[in-house]
Amino acid sequence: MTEFSVVQEGFETVDILGVDVHRVDRIGLMQTIEQAIHLGSGGVINDLNVHAANLAQVDPEFRNILNSSDLVFVDGAGIMLGAKLLGKRLGERLTYADWMDELFARCAERSWSIYFVGDTEETGAKFSESLAKRHPGCTLVGRNHGFFDRDGAENEQVLKAINASGADIVLAGMSMPIQEKWVWANKDKLDAKVFLTCGGFPRVYIGDIPRGPKWMTDNGLEWLYRLCKQPQVWRRYLLGNPLFLLRILRQRFFAG
Fold it and tell me: 121-134 vs 96-110: helix axis angle to the nearest 10?
């Protein structure tokens, strides 16, 4: 049995509102990343949370990208609850902030390099500093803010910079579904082996977006803490969460 056998056998998928989510745990996720770097393919990795599931209902392009990805993991207690209501079993909840330090440590051990695309120049600089302090052996070979023209010459310059850096992993930290669409449109032009759409994770990593206390994060209440800290995103939670649950119930009782 090779170290990649679990990945080679593939992961089962679970249908959550028309999105195929892989039943994967942290070990399987890390093996998928390692295999993609080893083989040079299979590294388009996305995640599904309640916000993404709702977007996929009204954006067929986004939904198709998720369903065509090499791996889609669960990021959020809401998806876990939705699967439970559907009577389905998912894998481990893999919120970026819970496992990225492990990935950074592996990058240092295996000499994998990272390029970050997203957010503001200020956030990118702080993220670079934080990463260097916490994982000095992890190489961030470049970064670019996320507010560039993604359809023109500026985009080509970003792609050229990423390829010139020799990065193994691209972290795309833009909002959904911009980051997923950007990766999908440009993945064949890039030499990187792994693409992770990490959203606002860098802001969490540098402390600009605080995480809730452990008793909240462990019990599916991180969204409530985030709402208290960022009331401007109230629509995403106060409207999006009930809408997601209604859609889950419709799938449970009326689909097929």
Answer: 60
Mention every residue, 6+ apart, whose C-beta is less than 8 A from residue 220: 77, 78, 80, 81
- For residue 80, count CB atoms less than 10 angstroms from its CB and return exposed for 0-12, middle for 13-18, buried for 19 or more: middle
pLDDT in tens, 175-229: 999 999 999 999 999 999 999 999 999 999 999 876 666 756 666 667 665 666 6
Q: What is the DSSP letter of 193?
A: S
Q: What is the pTM of this model?
A: 0.89
Exposed, middle or buried: residue 78 (CB in 10 Å: 0-12, 13-18, 19+)?
buried
Contact 129, 156 (CB under 8 A): no
- Structural contact between residues 222 and 32, judged by C-beta atoms closer than 8 angstroms: no
- The one-letter code for the residue type at 68 is S
Q: Which two tokens stand for residue 100?
A: 């990225």
Report yes or no: 58 and 124 within 8 Å, Cβ to Cβ: no
- Kindly state which CATH superfamily the domain 112-209 is placed in: Response regulator (3.40.50.2300)
* Tokens standing for residue 29: 């996720």
Largest Cα span, the chain: 53
Parts of the chain belonging to CATH 3.40.50.2300? 112-209
